[in-house]
Amino acid sequence: MFRLSFTTSGESHGRGLTGIIDGIPANLSISAEYINNQLARRQKGYGRGGRMKIESDTVEIMSGIRWGKTMGSPIALFIKNRDWINWEKAMSSDSAFKDSIEPVTKPRPGHADLPGIIKYNQGDIRNILERSSARETAMRVALGSIARRFLEDFNIFIGSFVTSVGNINLDIDTSRLNEDDLIELHKGADVSELRCPDKGVTEKMKHLIDTAKEEGYSLGGRFTTFATGLPVGLGSHIQWNRRLDARLAYAFMGIQAIKAVEIGDGVAISEKPGIEVLDEILPPEKGKTLFDVRRTTNHAGGIEGGMTNSMPVIVKATMKPIPTQRKSLKSIDINTGEPVEAAYERSDVCAIAAASVIGEAMMALVIADAFLEKFGGDSMEEVQRNYSSYIDSIR
Ligand code: EPS
Q: Could you read off the pLDDT tens digit of each residue along the chain, which spans 395 residues?
């Protein structure tokens, strides 16, 4: 990140989550209600476990916002864990309860458990699993919603939809979709229990999740995140770490359980000749300018040379099946080395719908950062002036 920075803290069953974002200009209008609406979107999804019935995430604004507007200072947020009440002793900072709580000693394959205890020299896997938990993503969605609100003032919209659960797929050719098509898919996703815009496919996905739940295994999936309304030239070809595709891939891979990230049709185009998959350039319509240059397709996912090219930015991400599942998996006890079944606690069967909302948050943070890198100013008015002057110069 070049102009924005953010960090989170908090354990899954601790008191709550804290987050700080720094670099948001002054005079951006934002309310707790706006952030809470985004938090509610993350909590939905067929296949979530019992925890989501306990939590109902709302944010407390601790600093940086006064009378509904940012002041340019760091913005700190807090989200309470309602489940904390059941974990006060197990997660206490006080050593008094240490001997009354059983340690977790059977690492789950696919989880941070085993490398974590070895690296951090811990005898209780809880000291690893509490922080590696995807509970932390609630705060990323809260911070990302501030970036989303910022981008809205420049008519940039970020959305997402789920395209698979396990082996049930929704086939969508994103290279042929325009901004309106993508926004329609997002709207369809927002009213689906799995953020899948196709009702028939959603039913098949739900059926697969029911079967997985009965049989005790977990499921992964895929989702697509997009941004519309972007000006040409966010990111840069000048240096590897300024490339927008690199920054997006980094951010998406930083979401728990994400194992692959694709920009546009990044995977499929490797199998095709260039003539079929390079997005040809058509002249602007009569009376329009270079800003309105048209492309035949969008295989590149809106990014060429690490810069936005004014087509929608498209990122596809793949999530592995959640490591906590009822069906026994081979493991060892960390104290004895003896074979055991991996630990099982209450868990989600599939969290792909939530992951797609988290993807939106990460995309908002990365794009807001790139936007501020190009048009940065200390107040919203200054950023607006810088942005308008660039747009006018292209037109
Ligand atoms: C998670 C395990 C489950 C999930 C949790 C992430 O929680 P618990 O262990 O309390 O049942 O529900 O996700 C959230 C709490 C959330 O807010 O998304 C894990 O181990 O990563």
A: 999 999 999 999 999 999 999 999 999 999 999 999 999 999 999 999 999 999 999 999 999 999 999 999 999 999 999 999 999 999 999 999 999 999 999 999 999 999 999 999 999 999 999 999 999 999 999 999 999 999 999 999 999 999 999 999 999 999 999 999 999 999 999 999 999 999 999 999 999 999 999 999 999 999 999 999 999 999 999 999 999 999 999 999 999 999 999 999 999 999 999 999 999 998 888 877 766 777 889 999 999 999 999 999 999 999 999 999 998 899 999 999 999 999 898 899 999 999 999 999 999 999 999 999 999 999 999 999 999 999 999 87
Is the C-beta atom of 131 inside 6 A of ligand 1? no
Angle at 5 between CA 142 and CA 179, to 5 degrees: 60
Å from CA of 340 to ligand 1 middle: 23
User: Nearest C-alpha to atom 10 of ligand 1 is from which residue?
Assistant: 51
Which residue's CA is the closest to the ligand 1 atom numbered 3?
347
Fill in the amino acid letter for 238: I
Whether residue 81 has its Cβ less than 6 Å from ligand 1:
no
What's the CA-to-centroid distance between 350 and ligand 1, angstroms? 11
Q: What domains can be seen in the chain, in order of their start residue? A: 5-394 (3.60.150.10)
| DSSP reduced 3-state for 102 | coil
**pTM of the prediction?**
0.97
Kindly give the interhelix angle for 352-375 and 137-152, rounded to the nearest 10 degrees.
50
Question: Is the beta carbon of 135 within 6 A of some atom in ligand 1?
Answer: yes
| Contact (Cβ atoms closer than 8 angstroms) between residue 26 and residue 72 | yes
Tell me, using a 6 A CB cutoff, whether residue 79 lines ligand 1: no
| Ligand 1 nearest atom to the CA of residue 83, by list position | 10
Q: Which residues pair with 157 in a beta bridge?
A: 228
Amino acid sitting at position 231: P
